[in-house]
Design brief:
189 residues; alpha/beta; Nucleotidyltransferase, domain 5; five-stranded mixed beta sheet; 6 helices
Length: 189
């Protein structure tokens, strides 16, 4: 499968995404002053990132700024944190496929993204929603066989198929797919 169909023209922007990280994640990454600004990155390309522990294992959560579409990465290692950009892109694509996006090629080819800027998360509404999602994920893991048997994609899909009050009780999955389709229509015509 050839990758590379993109929503926006990649040559026009240095980065397609912006990661807005919580203070806790910035500390784990060793980034004291987040270097990114949201200048040049449209809000529909901004994602929030957080780190949490479930059954003593580090986990990452990424949440879309507008739609609250979320995916988690369980059992994160130090090498994953050192390469957070690649972890983000790979898991975003896999989650979109898992959630039924027929054409997951909305991401630019990996060789076109050299750096995803990181900035401090300042949208407390998104962070509050993420904390609620973390609570739900931990409860699911504790109530099941444990983190070693948990599936990143099923957990994330369950969050995305739940109406969320912060986005007027839309389903995050449907809201993100609506934005993707709108961008495709705008770029096609």
């Amino acid at each position: 499968m050839k990758r590379g169909l993109i929503i926006d023209n990649i040559e026009q922007r240095p980065s397609q995404f912006l990661l807005c990280c919580t203070k806790k994640l910035q500390k784990e990454l060793g980034v004291s002053n987040a270097d990114g600004s949201n200048e040049g990155v449209p809000v529909e390309r901004q994602w929030h990132a957080n780190i949490f522990r479930a059954q003593r294992r580090k986990c990452l959560m990424f949440t879309h700024s507008i739609t609250l579409y979320t995916f988690v990465v369980l059992r994160v290692l130090k090498k994953d944190l050192a390469n957070i950009e690649q972890v983000f892109l790979e898991n975003l694509e896999l989650q979109l496929i898992q959630d039924g996006l027929e054409d997951p090629l909305i991401l630019p080819p990996p060789d076109h993204i050299h750096h995803i800027p990181i900035k401090k998360s300042q949208n407390m509404s998104v962070v509050a929603s993420m904390n609620d999602f973390i609570f739900r994920i931990k409860a699911h893991i504790e109530g099941s066989k444990g983190i070693q048997f948990a599936d990143n994609y099923r957990l994330s899909s369950s969050i995305n198929e739940m109406p969320v009050g912060a986005v007027n009780y839309w389903f995050p999955r449907d809201k993100l797919f609506e934005i993707i389709e709108e961008n495709r229509r705008n770029n096609a015509g």
